[in-house]
Write a structure and sequence with these properties.
The structure holds two protein chains of two kinds. By secondary structure, chain A is of the alpha/beta class. Chain A contains 15 helices and 16 strands. Chain A folds into two domains: about 250 residues, Thiamin diphosphate (ThDP)-binding fold, Pyr/PP domains (Rossmann fold); about 130 residues, Rossmann fold, CATH 3.40.50.920. In chain B, strands 2-1-3-4-6-5-7-8 form an eight-stranded mixed β-sheet, sandwiched between helices. Classes of the chains: A alpha/beta, B alpha/beta.
Amino acid sequence: MNALADKHVKVITGNAAAAHGARLCRPDVVAAYPITPQSEVVEQLAKWHADGSIDCEYVTVEGENSAQNVVCGASMAGSRAYTATSSYGLVYMYDAMLNTAGYRAPVVMVNVNREPPGIHAVCSGQQDMICVRDSGWVQLIAENCQEILDLSIQAFRLAEDHGIQLPVILNYDGYYLSYLAEAVNIPSVAEVDDYLSILKTQPKRPTLIPGQGIGCGSHGIGPGFVEARKKHMDALDRVYQMVDDIDAEFDQAFGRGYGGQLEAYRCEDADIILVTSGSAVGTARTVVNARREAGIKVGLVKIRLFRPWPIQRLARVLKGKKAIGILDRSLCFGWGCGPLHMETKAIIPTIGEFIPMLGFIDGLANMDITKEHIDKMIDDIYSASKGNSYQEVTWLP
Amino acid sequence: MAAKIKKLPKVCDYFQNEDQFSSGVAYCAGCTLELHARMVSKIMGKETVIVGTPSCSAPVLNGQNAAAWHKMGHYACTMTGVASSATGLTRAYQKAGTDATVVCFTGDGCAQDIGFQTLSGAAERNEKMVYICYDNEGYMNTGIQRSSATPYSVATSTTPVGKARKGKETGSKNLPLIMSLHDIPYVATATLSHLEDYAKKLTKAKEKSKEGFAYVHVFCPCLVGWKIPMDSSIQVCRAAVRTNFFPLWECEDGKYKITKEINKPKPIADLTQLMGKYNHMDEQMLANFQQIVDRRFNVLQTLCSI
C-alpha cells in the first residue's frame, strides 16, 4: 500500500502503466471486460481491488457492451468512471459509446489498439480507433509506456473539466506497447491528487440524483436535440486549447511535457515532414536524427490528439514545407489511403497551399515498421520535394 | 357507539408514497401500463431512479411526450444496456452513500431478448436493483412483432397467419423461471388483476433490492397487439391466472411458493377466446397449447414442493 502510494521508478509494461494511471486518479467505478492485448490492465486493477489498495466499485461485467453502459451510468450518477478495452471489445461498445458521448459523460477509456477483422487478427493495428472516430469522443494516442501513464492522468483532467465534459479514449499500440517493459516514473497519489485538485474548484457538473426529477438521455427531437449536438461540437472545439494547457500544467507539475495536441520534432527548419502517431514515432525519431546528420532537412510530427483533429496546429507546422509524408497503421476505406493521410489532405485549405502528400501504409497486423521502411519513406518524400513525380499511396513492406 | 370507519381496499395499505405521475399520461386507452406505472411509483417512492429504453413506456418515463410527466429521476439507455446502465447507477450511489432504489422498467423484448445478456449478467453479479419486466408478449411498440415471450400459436406481424403457417411455431421462453435459477434474493410473477398480490411483491422486491437483485415479471396485456376490447384488459389478466397460463408465484431466497392457488384451473380456451390474436386456433392447436401450459405448471409445482 505504502509502496503504491509513494513516488517511484519501476520497469513496467504499457498495460501496467495504464493501470497505474487509472489507480492514481482514484476512480469511483471501474468496469471492464478482458480482451487480448488489454487483459493485464483489468487483471492489475482487480488485484489492487482484491488487496484493498484501490477504493472503487469494481464491476466484473459479462461483456464490453455492459462495461460501457456501466461507466456511462456511473458517470451520470456523479462517479469518476474508467474502463479499458481493445479491438472487437471497442466496437462491441459502440451503441453505448454513442450514449456516453451524447450524454456528455466524462468517462475515461483505454483502448489498446488491435486489428479487426478475423479470428487471427490478434495483432497490432489502429483500425479499431478509426472505427469509432465519429462517435463524439475525444481521442488521444500515446507513444511509450511513460506517456501512457501520464496521458491517463491528463485524460481525467481533460474529460472532467467543466468546459469540456466529454468522454476520452486513450489509445496505445497493442503488443508494441501493451507488452513492452520500460522504466516508468510513477508519481505519488498525493501528487496526482494535487494535479487534479483544480477540478474540485469548478462548478459541479449535472448528475442524476434520486428524488430530484432529473432525467438523462431525453434529448428529445427537434431543437432540443440540435442544441445538445451544437454544444457537443463547441465543447470539442474547446478541447484544442485545453489539451495544450493541460499538457503545460502537467509539465510544470511533473517535469514531463509532450507538446499538447502534437509534437513537432525538428520541424522548424525542415523542408520535408513525416507525420505519424503511436509507437512508430520512436523508430521515426531515430531515423529522422540519422538523416538530419546526413544533411536531409527532415522533421517529424507526432499526432497526440486524433479527435478533434488538430487542424490549426498541424496546418501551421506543415505550411511552407516542400513535401509531406503520412505514415498510417490503418486504412481509410473509400479514400484509398490511410486515415491520418485523409485527415491531413482535408486541411489543405487551412494550410493555404498545395504541398505534395505521400501516404504510407505500414504496420498492419503486427508487421514491423522498421528503420529501413522509414528510410525509404523519407527518400520518397525527399524525391517528391525536388519536384519529381511520386506515388500517392505506398503499401509497405 | 363508535363511528363507522370506512375501510379502504387493502391494496392501498401498500401505497406509502404519493403518485409520481401527472394526470393524463399518454398510454393507449385501456392499457394496463398506466395502472402499472402509478402502482410502481406509489410503492417504490420518490427516491427511485427509473431506467428504461425505447418502448411503450418511454414516452411517459423519458419525457418524449410533453403532456405527461413524473417526478422521479430517470435514465434512458439503449435496449441492450438497461441492467448494465442500472448497475452503473446503483454502484455509483453505493460508492457515494446515496440512498436510492434503482428500478429497471422494460418490456419483454428488452428483458427476454435484446437485453437478456445484461439482465442475466447483472443478476449473476447480484447487483442491488429491482428489474420489472412488463410482459406484453411481443415487440408492441415497433408494430406487434414476435418476441421470445410470445406464446405458442400467436399471430404477430412477424409470425402471421397464412396458408402454410399459423402463427408462432414455438412456445415462449420462461424468463421468470430462468431468473430464479440465477440464485438471486427475489423473483416474482404478478399481474394487474391481482393488485394486492402485486403490491406485496413490489414491497418485498424493494426491500430485497437492498441485498441484491430482485426480478418481477408482470403479465401486462396490450390491447392493440392482442386484439382485445378496451374494457377487457383486467379480465384477460384474471383469465391468465385462472387457467394457470400465468401462475402467480414467488421465489424468495431459493424457496418457491405459489401465491395464488387455483383450485379448479380453467381450460386454456377460456383465455384464448378473449383475444383476437388466437382467433385462428383449431382443436389440435388448443390441445398443444394446453399441453405446454400443463407441463410448465407441473415444473412450477414440483419446484414449490422442494
